[in-house]
């Protein structure tokens, strides 16, 4: 049996990343001179229900809304419009040059923003930030009050490359909060923007009970279960590559250790991105909900070989024949535990593709969301069963 475990919202109560979204929004609000309440827990649930599950997307989308609010405030007077005409389109230069003056309380409807961006992403097939960029640029073209300069370049700077630490202001701020100033400087070689410890180490909690974790690891030792941590979190580079390189932070590995699964293979964003760059691709093209991520995770679960699993997944994507370690997965039952419908759909597409090549896998999609969560409604359309938490789902498997 092969089991794919998402981290945030499944193995781990991701308080840190949620706090990071709020802190990042608060940071840009203060730098822009706005009095805006950051997204609430319920607001963040809506982002995730809309499959905007990568915080770099949601933070960039929120920061862009704040930029627009400040631009509107400036453009409300002739003097303000004249000031805007001379301001740069680089976000950091813009913030430095922006006149520091208090702005009245501004309200941003983050749930409505999430729904619009989520719908645009589904309709276009683009990443959420890219889809949101199209929405904002359409608004810009229709709003005579907003000057195209510097609005357009600011939005493109915020939303154009949200997965690139050297290009994305929102990612820089969010990662600074998540890792703390010391680790941010260590892993990225960039000067910290804010001071403080790592939210990941201060706030996250494991959702996996020790007794359930022990039973899971016992099945692994018996060779009956082959789990893998399957996450869009940043991670180190593949084990075969040495695991250390600039910009590859151990956030996936931190989550796995926190859940008691430090011995389990990890297929995080950094693994995919490392190999993608070597074949002229972008990691954002391969990370879930892309089926490539799920196929690579299935191979790594069975073999522990990270580079070969990603290469085999890319070969499947190209239409080549199955290769090891995927060939070692024939006939396996695959279970995936996720709190995102788009990720569940990505795994389903992966298994369907592998089965067309003769692998003969079965798939059970486990949605994880507590009662009352807005995720349950969207998960119902993608999952075979829905659990209150990871323990309930694993106990069902243990009873089989």
Describe this entry's structure for a reader.
With 400 residues, this protein is an alpha/beta fold. It folds into two domains: 15-199, no CATH class; 208-399, no CATH class. The chain is 55% helix and 8% strand. It has a six-stranded parallel β-sheet with strand order 5-4-1-6-7-8, sandwiched between helices. Strands 2-3 form a two-stranded antiparallel ribbon. Strand 4, helix 12 (251-258) and strand 5 (266-267) form a beta-alpha-beta unit. The mean pLDDT is 94.
Whole-Å distance between the termini?
12 Å
Total number of helical segments?
19
The residue fraction in helices comes out at 55-70%
Category by helix and strand content = alpha/beta
* Uncertain residue segments: none
Overview features:
single chain, 8 strands, 400 residues, two-stranded antiparallel ribbon, alpha/beta, 6-stranded parallel sheet, 55% helix
Short description:
The chain has helices at residues 15-31, 41-49, 55-74, 78-85, 91-97, 110-124, 128-142, 148-159, 169-188, 199-203, 210-221, 251-258, 269-278, 283-286, 291-303, 306-318, 341-356, 375-380, 390-399, and strands at residues 2-5, 12-13, 205-206, 226-230, 266-267, 333-338, 362-368, 385-387.
